[in-house]
Specification:
Elements: E1 4-6, E2 12-14, H1 23-26, H2 37-45, E3 62-66, H3 72-84, E4 88-90, H4 102-109, E5 114-121, E6 125-132, E7 138-143, H5 171-174, H6 176-189
Parallel strand pairs: 3-4, 3-5
Antiparallel strand pairs: 1-2, 5-6, 6-7
Length: 192
Amino acid sequence: MVATKRKRHGDLAVLTKKPKRKKKDAEPPAKSSAVPKEVEEAEKGSIPGPIFKGEWKNKERILIFSSRGINFRTRHLMQDLRTLMPHSKADTKIDHKDKLFVINEVCEMKNCNKCIYFEAKKNQDLYMWLSNSPHGPSAKFLVQNIHTLAELKMTGNCLKGSRPILSFDPAFDELPHYALLKELLIQIFSTP
């Protein structure tokens, strides 16, 4: 029995077998003799160069999340930070009962190496933790005034996700603990 295939207009077409290739057709085409053999042997022995020749890319990922019990202004602040920082990731809220080392595990699961954690205590005080998640330093800040992007009328030619401008007092270079805080802030808020 011959295999048939129906065409679009309803006519039957008979499928035929493809002709076999001859031996001389099956051979690969001969290489051109324009390249000398010594050059080919030298290329075989050399190590190929790197795939990407360029500058180092910042592949920092930042996890931004909070504890339970935050108010709407803190939630809007977190959302604004996520929109301004294209290298950030979000996570669900964690309970007050969990210890702070749980944050390292959450960062590891989300493949993040920096963390911004907002901790609300007694529905009044808000603390912001900045940390290097595996085993780096962490800093705790008391947040007193929150102004969201909806309140601020920013004018000018600004791009969302562009490089922020961080300016520090000269005292940040003099004392070692201030220098550590300066480096932590630069690593977290600089966009890749």
